[in-house]
What we know:
Layout: H1 12-23, H2 38-47, H3 61-65, H4 68-80, E1 90-95, E2 101-106, H5 109-126, H6 132-152
Antiparallel strand pairs: 1-2
Amino acid sequence: MASALTLADMSPGLLKVVERAQREPEGRFHALAQLIDMPALERAYRRQRSDAAVGIDGVTKEQYGQALEVNLQDLHARLKAKRYCHQPIRRVYIPKAQGKTRPIGISAFEDKVVQDAVREVLEAIYEQDFLVERFVNSVQARIASLSVGVYDRGSNW
């Protein structure tokens, strides 16, 4: 999977979400589906692996890309009209040690595109919680409050 988007690669709507997530760490977001537009679906398509296993539909990235514009427009229209429904997951069993197997599920190609577009939106929100500065500041604040509790109140370990 390709690396995370940089701010330069993000759509203006997604940039606003990032800015708000930074400004309001406890804020809630509503109506994020509008951020999954045609450019977002195309970015998601481009990030898919060409050699990935095919799902129950049997469609590869190359096959889907032969009519990419039409396919993405149809997908976007279904998402907007709330008519999109994911396809069944193909169950495959991979061999493990000592003759055992482990089940894995393989999504249809179009479902992988939608999942990646949704990941992009959610990542824009939640990665703000894991930025180094915020983490360091949070840890420092917790240490400071612990120090106040231990030293100022005379707590014992």
